[in-house]
Amino acid sequence: MTETIENAGRRTPLYESVANRISYLVEEGTFRPGEKIPSIRSLSHQFGVSINTIKQAYAYLEDRRVVEARPQSGYFVCARLPEVPVAPQVSKREISPTEVSLGDLSQMILRDTMNPDLLQLGISAPAMDMLPIEKLNRMISSELRRKPEQSMEYAVPPGNKRLRTQVAKRMLLAGCTLRPDEIVTTTGCMEAVFLALKVLCRPGDTVAVESPTFFNFLQLIESLGLKALEIPTSPADGISLEALEYALGQNRISACLVVSNFSNPLGSIMPDARKQEMVELLERHDVPLIEDDIHGDIAFANERPLVARSYDKEGNVLLCSSFSKTVAPGYRVGWIAPGRYQKEIEALKMAVTVASASPTQMAVGQFLANGGYERHLRKLRRESATRVARMSEAIGVYFPEGTKVTRPRGGFCLWVEMPAAVDSLKLYAEAVDSGITIAPGPIFSATGKFSNCIRLNAALWSEKIEHAIKTLGELASRQV
Amino acid sequence: MTETIENAGRRTPLYESVANRISYLVEEGTFRPGEKIPSIRSLSHQFGVSINTIKQAYAYLEDRRVVEARPQSGYFVCARLPEVPVAPQVSKREISPTEVSLGDLSQMILRDTMNPDLLQLGISAPAMDMLPIEKLNRMISSELRRKPEQSMEYAVPPGNKRLRTQVAKRMLLAGCTLRPDEIVTTTGCMEAVFLALKVLCRPGDTVAVESPTFFNFLQLIESLGLKALEIPTSPADGISLEALEYALGQNRISACLVVSNFSNPLGSIMPDARKQEMVELLERHDVPLIEDDIHGDIAFANERPLVARSYDKEGNVLLCSSFSKTVAPGYRVGWIAPGRYQKEIEALKMAVTVASASPTQMAVGQFLANGGYERHLRKLRRESATRVARMSEAIGVYFPEGTKVTRPRGGFCLWVEMPAAVDSLKLYAEAVDSGITIAPGPIFSATGKFSNCIRLNAALWSEKIEHAIKTLGELASRQV
Fold first, then answer.
1. Helix/strand number for chain A, H first, E second
2. Hey, which of A44, A363, B97, B285 would disulfide with A140, CB 3.0 to 4.6 Å?
3. Are residues A282 and A388 in the same domain?
4. What's the number of domains chain B is made of?
5. In whole angstroms, what is the distance from residue A34 CA to residue A27 CA?
6. CB A219, CB A199: distance < 8 Å
7. HSE-up of A241 (CA within 13 Å, CB side)?
8. Could you tell me which of B332, B299, B339, B301 has the C-alpha nearest to residue B317?
9. Domain span at A42
């Protein structure tokens, strides 16, 4: 039974009244955006109402985006954020394959990326203080002591068995039933995607990608001599299936490359029903899906989302991932579950790199097996959610009026759409002069779209970074 | 002054007389093939002649292949070995590009390679007991403690700087003056060769290779959609420059892929003058050379040989190598010095795997820097020379009459040419039934040559392996 109170002749539910009082405290600044608010128990005591009423009030406020629940942490005031960018509106005429030539742009980014004097807001990598450095390094040492010969041997395809077994177990959480021998370990997720594209496509072939899409995918497509077909993608629910279906009808497409959970750069997540629809659509057109799930484990919610692969009945989805965003970028431990292309992927992996490094595969396998990974994820998810909220808030404060920013529910990429007048390449150059890198919008497109957008790495959030966001905001404001 | 003695009216130099006495001891079995013979000092004492005379006698016997000097170890009785195979005689008509399709053959080998129950004489890898396992594993642990953050970071191209600096220093011994930033680290030597081929060739292009050539090269050529042009190669001095020159005149060749030092499978080494001639020839035809020097550090002599790259003035040689044969196959630490293709190689490496694993690069860099690598090499060279001699000898004992075997002066591949009637694929199947893998000749050719040849890994030599060689010899003999 919901308690009610009489208020100006209208019977208002008690929880709504409580919610309004909390809203008021937020509005007048008692609770700042991003701040933790008192626990259900203490608020129940404070307001003299039942725990159930407080729970209802929080649910009410959550629906209205006043507060948000964070796993293991309680309730926080939502940041007052800029608007969310809308999905790009694209006419059907524009949905056609394009040669990819990022050329000088990618060289420039590569060069700046290696400069240790720059603040690397343009790289999508976890912050060092979020990673289990000491645990991992202890693990690698103890594994090498325990299995010295294994560390020296080629982990020939399909790769380190313990790691594959652990990955198979974990993927149950993502809705997949995989046997360890249906997984091939790789040198990071990029090698997994490379192997998939190389096996599925011949030079000149067309790959359907999200738009915007991770620029390393475009570089890979370019270096394999393929064409990219950019499908409009929404920051909310991912690639447009309507546009994809249209494109499939008009073009010979050899593969579709999608990040269905917390895409890079948009952070979009496809609802499960849309994942299923996508898998069935591609299956009908006999087009294999390369699914990159590299951010899947960094869901801000308690549970990690399903993968599109979980709806695949025909082995048509090549699922790729790695531990580069969650455990250790430098370990280069990734994997692919290649579906019906297992044999070809194993042979190509053997031909191209023979095997990936054994010691790092052993360490990550052990980290998964002893439960360390799951414990680490809980912290990583909480911390990522907080940093994404903080950086979004700072963008709201410092960037020019009219700036929009995405609301990812996992990962740590933020996609910032500035007013149309802002040229992100000009901003890039000025930012580098100020000691900061950003990822300018046009590198996420083969057709030079997104000139007024940038991607930022929220994982690096700190006081120091707030200052960098302020600098970027000022530089952008000058262009308006 | 050389001492002489009167012998049947002829004045024979004293050293020759001493040499003949040693020869006699070898012939009648006092010193067995492969055995160490007494030191110069002790023999001088024993025979009552000067140290100088003993030295002259040893030089005389060395010229006649009765004894051989091994670095740091003294003199050993040469194994009484089967004859050396001659370079394949090939008519000019046969020198033309071929599509590569190893297909099922390579799948079969891959599958058997992963079977831990088989004795892997077919894999070219160092034996575990020759590797500095404990040292390396200690090194990786201490490096991770010293530089925890570096171990977690992407070692983006060109890769770990310390390792590159150490490689640059070492390559002085091979005649190359390289700056650290002219080197890009890779996931083993195979990735280096892959990057080189991918940057230099478009699908359908032709690559000139040695014949026989390392089968992983052929798999790579196949997976990149390239054609192989097989150039006859001599077990003694490597690729035929005459045939190469002819081929260059007749075909559009996009790259030439050569192992100039201790090639796989022949173990041939090109004399320096021929290396220079090859570099100049390819330069004149504007064809880049991909040089694989993976075995260069495992020279049985005191000094490592020069690389062809040392004669390159135009950046036309892409030098590839790794520490997989010398330090740790499973560490996957390789590198490429891409000459004038530096920029393209870095960009492709970034697109395909982003970076190679950091911890293993750090460990190998430290192993080189603290002198451990050089000390390890001395043992590795001695031991490899001994095992190659022992296995060659066993092949002479157990294989059918008319079997020929190469005399590598580095590395640990032995190429065995059996009588024409022996079918190495049949032998392969029978050997696997007996628990042994071999590398059958046809996988070293895109045109199915070498049906009566096999490659064996002499690094694994031990008493147990002698038994396997006996088994192989018996299986082969049944086919004659």
1. 16, 19
2. A363
3. no
4. 2
5. 13
6. no
7. 14
8. B339
9. 4-77
Q: Do B137 and A151 touch (CB under 8 A)?
A: yes
Q: Which among B191, B343, B359 has the least Cβ separation from residue A107?
A: B343
Which tokens is A131 given?
């990673």
A/B interface, count of CB pairs below 8 Å: 200
CB contact under 8 A, B220 and A352: yes
Same domain, B147 and B22: no
Average pLDDT, chain A: 90
Round to whole Å and give the CA distance between A332 and B477: 48
Helix (H) or strand (E) holding B74: strand B74-77
Give residue-wise pLDDT tens across range A164-218.
999 999 999 999 999 999 999 999 999 999 999 999 999 999 999 999 999 999 9
B81 CA: distance to closest CA in chain A (Å)? 31
What value does the mean pLDDT take over residues A248-270?
96
Q: What values do phi and psi take at B403, rounded to 5?
A: -70, 140
Same-domain check for residues A421 and A457: yes
Q: Helices A241-250 & A272-284, crossing angle to 10 degrees?
A: 10
Residue with tokens 């030092």: B261
On whether both B18 and B139 belong to a single domain, the answer is no
Instruction: Mark A44-64 as b/e (b = at least 16 C-beta within 10 Å).
Output: beebebeeebbebbbebbeee
Name the token pair of B258.
């050569």
pTM: 0.85
Tokens standing for residue A359 = 């010691």
- What is the DSSP track for A238-288? EE-HHHHHHHHHHS--SEEEE--BS-TTT--B--HHHHHHHHHHHHHTT--
- Using alpha carbons, list the distances in angstroms from residue B262 to A478, B211, B272, B295, B354: 63, 14, 13, 6, 31
The one-letter code for the residue type at B445 is: S
The ipTM (two decimal places) reads 0.84
Write down which residue in B320, B343, B372 finishes a domain: B372
Q: Spell out a b/e string for B250-282, using b for 16 or more CB atoms within 10 Å of the CB, else e.
A: ebebbbbbbbbbbbbbbbbbbebebbbbbbebb
Give contacts of A113 with chain B, Cβ < 8 Å. Answer: 156
Among A105, A222, A327, A332, pick the best mutation site for testing chain B contact (most B Cβ within 10 A): A332
Residue B92's pLDDT band, with cuts at 50, 70 and 90, is: low
Q: How far is CA A402 from CA A88, A340, A418, B370, in A?
A: 16, 47, 7, 58
Q: What mean pLDDT do residues A347-355 have? A: 93
Single out the residue in B331, B357, B372 at which a domain terminates. B372
End-to-end CA distance of chain A: 54
Q: How far is CA B134 from the centre of its chain?
A: 25
Who among B134, B151, B332 is closest to A355 (CB)? B332
Check A125 against B154: CB less than 8 A apart. Answer: yes
Query: CATH number, domain at A192?
Result: 3.40.640.10
Measuring CA to CA, how many Å separate A35 from each of A30, A77, A392, A404? 10, 5, 14, 22
Q: Please list every residue in chain B whose beta carbon sits closer than 8 Å to the beta carbon of residue A149.
A: 128, 133
The candidate with the shortest Cα–Cα distance to B458, out of B415, B403, B399, is B415
Instruction: Calculate what percentage of chain B has a pLDDT beyond 90.
Output: 71
Spatial distance between the Cα atoms of A162 and B162, rounded to a whole number of angstroms = 31
Among candidate residues A217, A229, A224, A230, the one with its CA nearest the CA of residue A203: A224
Q: How many CA atoms lie within 13 A of B345 on its CB side?
A: 28
d(C-alpha B305, C-alpha B293), whole Å:
10
HSE-CB at A214 with a 13 A cutoff on CA atoms is 25
Q: Which two tokens stand for residue B426?
A: 């049949």
- Please state, in angstroms and rounded to a whole number, the distance separating the CA atoms of residues A274 and A82: 27
Q: Which of B137, B147, B202 to probe the A interface (max A CBs under 10 A)?
A: B137
Chain centroid to CA A176: how far?
19
Q: Which residues of A touch B140 (CB under 8 A)?
A: 140-141, 144, 359
